[in-house]
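[job 4471] stage=fold_predict status=RUNNING
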Amino acid sequence: MQLSSSSFANGTTIPRRFTCDGEDRSPALGWTGAPAGTRSFVLLCDDPDAPAGIWHHWAAYDIAADCAELAEGAAQHAGKQGFKQATNDFRRPG
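[job 4471] inference complete, writing structure tokens
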């Protein structure tokens, strides 16, 4: 599978607006190449270079198998988008 974003280029720093120091919005994400028989997706956003060790920023799950993208800010409207979110290391969903 291939994950990409129209919110920032591959290999670049994630813009501040998508961090807790900015607007704390989820970036636009899209993916291709799902295996045949995929029933749903999970999206994990972890920071392996965080000072305290791996930091879990976002976990979205039960994303429909026919979904191939999440628009910018999708985390703020997960229920309307039809997916769920786990609690992150900030002790909140999203």
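[job 4471] summary: The chain has a mean pLDDT of 94.
[job 4471] exit 0
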